[in-house]
Write a sequence for this structure.
């Protein structure tokens, strides 16, 4: 309990320091840009990057670091035990790993591009809202409340559609990884049965290997 509270406190401080550093560096970058940069980029989008996106980035990084460290330690330990039990079975388990990594990398890049698009659209919506509120007297004088509302809702609808694509991509990636892991498990079990019949591995060792393989799969899935 004491160490857990200490860990939470340390990571909270790290999140705050990282957020301050990111926002300071980004604002410093803004100040070093040419005047034309501010003509081509809307102020709402720049402010959204400075206030909203930096907060998300710092929180994501700080929350993922302990998970990644724990997953890496578990992965290395489990992988070593699998090799000690049977090197050949370990190789059989890794047959489909390159394909999984390639697909995960491609889908991850696509996911990042869509996330950036959603953030840009959210910034555009914030810009419209800020502009409308600041010029509400002019909007009222022209009776253009419905027009501004339609423009604002249109941007949010685009962001929603992009989020749907992002969700579908995440689901497809999850399905592919699960099917690939299932196929690798079938190959491993078939080959393991062959090794048992030829007295190249004991039955209890095969059972232990299966448990380690499931543990390794859960680590990769969570990571």
């Amino acid at each position: 309990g004491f160490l857990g509270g200490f860990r939470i406190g340390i990571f909270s401080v790290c999140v705050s320091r990282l957020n301050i550093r990111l926002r300071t560096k980004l604002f410093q970058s803004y100040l070093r840009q040419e005047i034309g940069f501010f003509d081509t980029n809307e102020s709402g989008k720049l402010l959204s990057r400075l206030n909203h996106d930096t907060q998300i980035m710092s929180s994501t990084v700080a929350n993922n670091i302990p998970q990644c460290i724990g997953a890496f330690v578990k992965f290395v330990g489990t992988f070593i035990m699998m090799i000690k039990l049977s090197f050949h079975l370990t190789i059989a388990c890794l047959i489909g790993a390159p394909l999984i990594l390639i697909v995960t990398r491609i889908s991850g890049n696509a996911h990042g591009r869509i996330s950036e698009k959603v953030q840009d659209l959210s910034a555009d919506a914030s810009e419209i809202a800020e502009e409308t509120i600041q010029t509400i007297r002019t909007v009222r004088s022209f009776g253009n409340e419905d027009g501004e509302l339609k423009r604002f809702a249109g941007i949010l609808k685009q962001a929603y559609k992009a989020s749907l694509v992002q969700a579908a991509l995440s689901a497809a990636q999850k399905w592919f990884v699960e099917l690939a892991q299932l196929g690798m498990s079938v190959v491993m079990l078939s080959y393991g049965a062959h090794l048992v019949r030829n007295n190249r591995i004991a039955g209890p060792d095969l059972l232990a290997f299966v448990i380690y393989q499931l543990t390794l799969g859960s680590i990769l899935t969570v990571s």
